[in-house]
Design goal:
single chain, 238 residues, alpha+beta, Alpha-Beta Plaits, 2 domains, 9-stranded mixed sheet, two-stranded antiparallel sheet, 5 helices, 11 strands, DUF2344 domain-containing protein, DUF2344
């Protein structure tokens, strides 16, 4: 048995298909590409495929990951080409790597995501103001968000401090009424924060005149953390 970790992109119209539909599509593609995929044991066997973390609907990405287990070793360039030939426009395998078959699942190692967010502005502001407001925003020790928690058919409001989940936020560039921000936020079982929530809080707490309904989000990379350093899933293979 062999385990392959693959990085793929999701762009174009494919950003509007759900994660569940993506999983089903990948299963069909692997069959059509004649990949000797391994299956689980039991009465209802499933292909051994696992994704890192679901991408929100409408978000594009060049940093998605999937692990597959196969029954026989295949040259990685052949494997990648076979799969890409069957994938629809908008989904593309970028890189493949053999990893230890006993390596941790992707969902267990991913802790942070990096995004680029393109925003439209209500009115023109200076780059100096954008940099200053981002700096002041990140100086906050507490940024509260209300979250509704459902428990035993009851809804309860809870205040959560999301500041520890915002690992990095930077102004990248500006072109008249368009600006781009880069951010790294917590992702996964230890904490999860959507980039649009960060933008909502920027609108609430700063003087940056962002039009919330006109933001475009693109995921660049997923990271694990080893000894305080960010590492990609390709660097965690055991």
């Amino acid at each position: 048995m062999y385990k392959v970790r693959m990085r793929f992109s999701k762009n174009g119209y494919m950003i509007f298909i759900s994660h569940l539909d993506l999983v089903r599509m990948v299963e069909r593609v692997l069959r059509r590409a004649n990949i000797p995929i391994a299956f689980t044991q039991g009465f209802n066997p499933h292909p051994k495929i696992s994704f890192a973390t679901a991408l929100a609907l409408g978000v594009s990405s060049d940093g998605e990951y999937i692990d597959i287990e196969i029954q026989e070793k295949i040259d990685l360039s052949i494997l990648k080409n076979r799969i890409n030939e069957q994938l629809p426009d908008g989904i593309k395998i970028i890189k493949c790597k053999y990893i230890d078959v006993k390596s941790k699942a992707l969902m267990a190692i991913v802790e942070q995501s990096k995004y680029m967010v393109r925003c439209s502005l209500k009115n023109d502001v200076s780059e100096e103001l954008l940099r200053r407001e981002i700096l002041n925003f990140m100086r906050n020790e507490e940024i509260l968000m209300h979250k509704i928690i459902k428990k035993k058919n009851k809804e309860k409001k809870k205040e959560i401090n999301i500041r520890p989940l915002i690992k990095n936020l930077e102004f990248v560039s500006k072109d008249h009424l368009q600006c781009i921000f880069s951010m790294i936020v917590a992702t996964g079982s230890k904490g999860n924060l959507k980039p649009e929530v960060v933008i909502e809080k920027l609108i609430e707490k700063t003087e940056i005149p962002i039009l919330l309904q006109k933001i475009r989000i693109h995921r660049l990379e997923l990271y694990g953390v080893i000894d305080g350093e960010l590492v990609t899933p390709f660097e965690i293979t055991r």
